[in-house]
Amino acid sequence: MATFLFLYVLSLFSLSLLILRMIQRKRRQACYILDYQCYKPTDDRKLSTELSGKIIRRNKNLGLDEFKFLLKVIVGSGIGEETYGPRMVFHAREDSPTYEDGILEMDEFFHDSIDKLLARTGVSPQDIHVLVVNVACITTIPSLASRIIKRYKMREDVKIYNLTGMGCSASLISINIVESIFKCQENVNALVVASESLSPNWYTGNDKSMILTNCLFRAGGVAILLTNKKSLKDRAMFKLKCLVRTHHGARDEAYTSCIQMEDEHGRVGINLSKNLPKAATRAFIENLRLISLKILPLREILRYALLSFVGKFVMINFKTGVDHFCLHTGGKAVIDSIGKSLGLSEYDLEPARMTLHRFGNTSASSIWYVLGYMEAKKRFKRGEKVFMISLGAGFKCNSCLWEVVRDLDGENGNCWNECDIDKYPPTSFSNPFMDKYGWLNHKDETTFDRNDFE
């Protein structure tokens, strides 16, 4: 009897110890956002209607057909007059950008956003153990990550990951890298930096599939400070619940749907092919299929499965497991399409629409401007769930779910607070381009004269 009792107590103790270790491991593996800072360039880099018109007119490779195409795209883009461009277009050097133009664009972002983030959190550069930088369209030697290490005098054993060519969905890839490191190491702080360098890829040809990028992409970036330190979790803003990555690069139509290339005259740009909507839809659906099993309650999954089995058309109600939606601001049509697929209201789509209107498509950092909008509007309450989804070249779709750790009052000094958040959404979205250049639609080759622009 004593032996049996001893073995029983020993087994109970071992089981308790195992459970305790599992709980400790889960706590150690937690991934928190301590704070983040979206970049707001200086006002002298705003692309107004007047300046945008001048930039377009400077391109002598464009004819009436291309002007009409650009007018249609810009008017229907959902982008306003306060977005930001690279400095070289303000100096009329888009035909001959230099290596230093790209470096300057990145340095201005690094110095502004990382400085603000570290000052607000009180975290020293020496306390950052992991640095992940993703900027798709510029490669430097030393790397951009090395430039950050040099400026901020980071520790010698900092682990760096410098990602290029990953496109608009790259920031969640960076988060995934940090999450994986956190599972293996305790008491780690990580800095994620995501942006895009427009200077080397401003297209000056007349290929319509490559002109599109000039209309949609704008300057921006985000710096995010993450941690798995238990001592900092009460200061955290968000906790990562799950993350799913989908990549269809093995399919030719997906791989070539968004690709950097030269046109027939050797001008470099990003080609957005006619296959892009189809490739994006496939990646989007596949990603939703995987992540829905992780973020939705069992009752909603069973309801959908049962009604689908009996032949009824039904949409999954993502609002049963999600309170807020951070959607990729790839363009007005992208936001509309995702919103329709998820059954979202105009209230749900407002943050993405306003981000596109105010900042344009800032590539990998776009979804963080959407997050910042909701924070500035004081929408986040403790315990609520935030769903992020982004699309990017490859073709890939990445998504994740965050939990709001504490009530957020929107006063952290992020970029939307500098934009007078109470002005959004505006009462009117009239596009000045149509008022100024609508006359192009009434011209043909026999009546059009470039001097009419003057």
Mean pLDDT, as a whole number?
Answer: 88
**Helix content range of the residues, please?**
40-55%
CATH superfamily: Thiolase/Chalcone synthase
Strand order of the largest sheet: 3-2-4-5-1-6-11-10-9
Order of helices and strands: HEHHHHEHEHEHEEHEEHHEHHHEEH
How many structural domains in the coordinates?
Answer: 1
Number of strands: 11
Distance between the termini: 102 Å
Major sheet attributes? 9 strands, mixed
In short:
The active site is at 168, 247, 324, 328, 357, 361. The protein has helices spanning 2-28, 49-58, 64-75, 87-90, 99-121, 144-152, 170-182, 208-216, 252-255, 276-295, 298-309, 332-342, 346-359, 366-376, 432-437; strands spanning 32-38, 130-135, 159-163, 189-195, 221-227, 238-247, 258-262, 268-272, 324-327, 385-392, 396-404. It is an alpha/beta fold and 454 residues long.
Give an overview in words.
There is one protein chain. This protein is α/β, with parallel strands linked by helices and 454 residues long. The chain has a single domain (31-416, 429-438), classed as Thiolase/Chalcone synthase (Peroxisomal Thiolase, Chain A, domain 1). The chain is built from 15 helices and 11 strands. The strands form 2 sheets. The protein has a 9-stranded mixed beta sheet with strand order 3-2-4-5-1-6-11-10-9, with helices on both faces. The longest helix has 27 residues, at 2-28. The model has no long low-confidence stretch (mean pLDDT 88).
